Amino acid sequence: MECKEKYFDDKMNLTNKEIEESLKKAMEEGKKQGIKIGRKQSQIKIITNLLAMDMDLDIIYKITGLSLEEIKELIN
After folding, report:
1. How many CB atoms lie within 10 A of CB 73?
2. What are the strands, taking DSSP E only, across 2-75?
3. What global pTM score does this model have?
């Protein structure tokens, strides 16, 4: 009986470790996505401000390093 309990305890610990690893990976991925979203929002704000100052798209793309297509995509 003791061996059976140990087997199930080991299985539960393994499962808990797997759950912890999955949660850690999910949190890391969520953090990466959050940073990506924040950067995109920042770029949109910068582009919007530059457009409000009547800057040409060619200048904006040189300032931001984004392609004209990326800029157009962000402002739409």
Report:
1. 10
2. none
3. 0.63
CB 44 within 8 A of CB 74: yes
Q: Answer whether 68's CB lies under 8 Å from 56's CB.
A: no
Q: Which domain holds residue 32?
A: 2-75
* Tens-binned pLDDT, residue by residue, of the chain (76 aa): 566 666 566 666 667 788 888 889 999 999 999 999 999 899 889 999 999 999 998 899 888 888 889 888 888 8
CA dist 70 and 64 (Å) reads 10
Q: Cα 58 from chain centroid?
A: 28
Amino acid at 9: D
Structural domain tally of the chain? Answer: 1
What is the rounded distance in angstroms from the CA atom of residue 47 to the CA atom of residue 59? 11
